Amino acid sequence: MLSLDSLTGTDLVLVGMADLAVIREQPVTLCTSPLGACLAVAIFDPVRKIAGVLNSMLPEASIDPKRAGERPGMFLDSGLTALVDRAVELGALPERLEIFVAGGARILDETSYFNIGNRNFGVLESWMKARGLVLVAADVGGLSNRSLQLNGMTGQVRLKISGQPKLKILCKP
Amino acid sequence: MQAIDDYISNVRYLPPAPRVVPDLIKLLNQPDVDSSRVVKIISLDPSLTANVLRVCNSAYFGAALPTSDLQEAVTRLGFQQVYLLVTAATGAKLLATPQKGLGMDPGELWKHSVAAAVSAQLIAKKLGDDFNLVFTAALLHDIGKVILAQAAEDTYFRIFREAETRQISIIESEAKLLGMNHAEVGGRLLSRWKFPPNIVAAVTHHHAPKGAGRHERLASFVYLGNMIAYFMGHGFGHIAFAMRGREEALTILGLPPESIPQYMMETFEQMHMIEALFSMVAEPAAPK
User: Fold this and answer.
1) pLDDT given at position B64
2) How many beta carbons lie within 10 A of that of residue A85, not counting itself?
3) Separation of alpha carbons A94 and A157, rounded Å
4) Pick from A43, A119, A150, B198: CA 20 to 30 A from residue A29's CA?
5) Residue B168 in contact with residue B162, Cβ under 8 Å?
6) What is the bridge-based pairing of β-strands A3-4 and A28-32?
7) For A89-111, how does the pLDDT look when each residue is reduced to its tens digit (9 = 90+)?
8) Where are the beta strands (DSSP E) in A71-145?
9) How many helices and strands, by DSSP H and E, does chain B display?
10) Closest-CA residue of chain A to B166
11) Residue B71: what are its φ and ψ, rounded to 5°?
12) Does residue B274 belong to any structural domain of this protein?
């Protein structure tokens, strides 16, 4: 849709900010816009080849329930629920999902009001714990802006880190 | 000051002074602006006029019938909207140039500046401040980076490394290795270009708004617009988040901390405007 992924020859499909997308057996790469302090979550069911990406802006739907109703992907908690529900509708098993997370860059002063990235990650951890889900790999915090890419067929997750020419592969442990 | 002036004078391709914007700023506070005066000022720069008309006809600013006449555009859109477009077209010319030293792709500094300007303007509108001034200051806040990216291209690698290793801000690292930072250079440049003292002060102190003295309010809008742009991913280069959190910006404007997510959501909803202004990239000025 957008352009061609030069490494795998698959189409790149943009998942914009405050949005989410789930696909099944599609030879495309889902990629987010640059994340800044926002958090992206990628999920993948390797058996059914179901891939999903959430590009959330803020931690909790309680910040603005009306906006969350219109656009669940804007918030991490409502977005995660919508993301997993849609994957399950397409045939994914929650316990089989591989989950990756990236983003949440932080400014220097850890305790500052301006560190919204911190809260995002806390919300993700408790959401996953409540459902017995485990994170496969994460690249969060730090000073760099980045965007996430998920290959719809292989489940490989890569990161484009601003100011660095090469893509980083977010490896499995 | 002399050191900064020397630095600016040594830049090989110094962008031409944008004369139109400082002249239009003088008209901002006048109750009834004579549109022929506005047209006369803008027409002095034909490429600027062409760019303004192009965006004026875009889907977002969308006049029902495309116009090729500046007078008609001013009548249709009004002075405020035309002021915004002229400022944006000027900013595009200055900021949409490649900045190799900063680890940015061409256009990235421009996108960051537009997002900061739209976000800062939104807050100013809510608080009843002069949102045109806020838009202008926030749009041009990183103009100093254009100068330093050229003049100190080879030093930036060390500036980033120093900031990362010592966990200090880019501003602090620039000051340490260059003896000046990009905010000071930007402020000085705008002062030489005859921008008013409030915009100069806001740009000079956009990383620490209290330093702007009686212009601290304007500087606080710019600080917040800049932060929100970074938070939302509109900020690039190496270690873009090497910045300090200045709660004073909120105190000065009387805003609670919860207003940050609020303004992020509202900035997101202005994305169509941000994208319309993104497209305002002018041809880079030919080297002298």
Assistant:
1) 63
2) 14
3) 19
4) A119
5) yes
6) unpaired
7) 999 999 999 999 999 998 887 66
8) 98-103, 135-140
9) 16, 0
10) A108
11) -60, -40
12) yes
Strand partners, B218: none
Tokens representing A64 are: 């603005």
Q: With beta carbons under 8 A apart, name residues in chain B contacting A75.
A: none
In a domain, B7, yes or no: no
Q: Which chain A residues are Cβ-neighbours of B262 within 8 angstroms?
A: 63-64
Residue with tokens 């990161």: A159
B193: domain range?
Answer: 12-278
For B253-275, the pLDDT digits (tens) are 999 988 999 999 999 998 878 87
Question: Domain segments of chain A: what residues?
Answer: 3-169
CATH class of A3-169: alpha beta
Cβ–Cβ under 8 Å, residues B89 and B48? yes
Mutation choice for B interface testing from A113, A159, A161, A164 by most B CBs within 10 A: A113
Residue B112 belongs to a domain: yes
Question: Domain tally for chain B?
Answer: 1
Torsion angle of the four alpha carbons A34, A37, A38, A40, in this order, in degrees rounded to the nearest 10: 70
Greatest pairwise CA separation for chain A in angstroms: 43
Please give the backbone phi and psi of residue B213, each rounded to the nearest 5 degrees, phi first: 60, -125
* Whole-angstrom distance, CA of residue B285 vs CA of residue B288: 9
